[in-house]
Amino acid sequence: MELTESIKAQYPFAGHFAHLGKHKMHYIDEGQGSVIVMVHGNPTWSFYYRHLIKELSKEYRVIALDHIGCGLSDKPQDYNYTLEQRVDDLGMLLNELGVIKYSLIVHDWGGAIGFGQAVKHPEQVENIVILNTAAFRSKRIPFTIGLCKMKYIGPWIVKNLNAFCYPATFMTTVKKLPKETKQAYLFPYRNSNNRVAISEFVQDIPLDEKHRSYAYLKNIEEKLPTLTGKKLIIWGGQDFCFNDEFFERWKEIYPDAKVEYFANAGHYVLEDEKEKALSSIKGFLKNEQ
Prior knowledge:
Layout: H1 5-10, E1 15-20, E2 23-30, E3 35-39, H2 50-56, E4 61-65, H3 83-96, E5 102-108, H4 110-120, E6 125-133, H5 143-149, H6 153-160, H7 165-171, H8 179-186, H9 196-203, H10 214-223, E7 230-236, H11 244-253, E8 258-262, H12 269-272, H13 274-286
Parallel strand pairs: 3-4, 3-5, 5-6, 6-7, 7-8
Antiparallel strand pairs: 1-2, 2-4
Helix pairs in contact: 3-4, 5-6, 6-9
């Protein structure tokens, strides 16, 4: 998938591919030094972390992946798009790259995936930055996402009407995204087949005990206290999805975490408060010891 010149100007990184079974996972691997792993959510891709990659790769080795079905990775129609598989994919990538110690930055679905890997090997995780996400159970779901989750109609409107990716370009921020940035977010998901993972992410939200990923998420939630490294919570207070209930839950789980709360930022907190968020993250990592 060849990027446009406009996207390359915003996202000027050399791409790499890891072979996970018969599918290729795209990832960015920039800089040298202590490792930082960035895990995106739905419906974004590693593009979401572009500003962090540019700055942090000056002093660290930064790895930012695109989940299978997302970004510039392969988009198979018959993949096992479950939370457990996502965690396994992340683990396989880290193993292939020889990463045994790292700091973690997570957003949206990247929280459950990143923490899922972290609790399997807590000794490997040095620091964690939490950006408007969850890695625990909740029955709360916004009406618009609930509609996209409905059996039959949900997958159809997400894949054929672009009812998840397109609204995310204006519902996730307080500040209006520039046209070229909106185009970049939508670029990997330009047809119905390319939106299969977007739909499956929504279907994989576990709201009850019968759901395929409920037990797996419950296990992650129960092990969150085993992660003893330092945490930084950066939160956008105008998030229609991961609202302040999730923010308060994180503070209960990690009462010693450093907190940066931006009352006038939305779900894409790195877009609304790019400079302040970057400054907080750089300061946090500098004082990691």
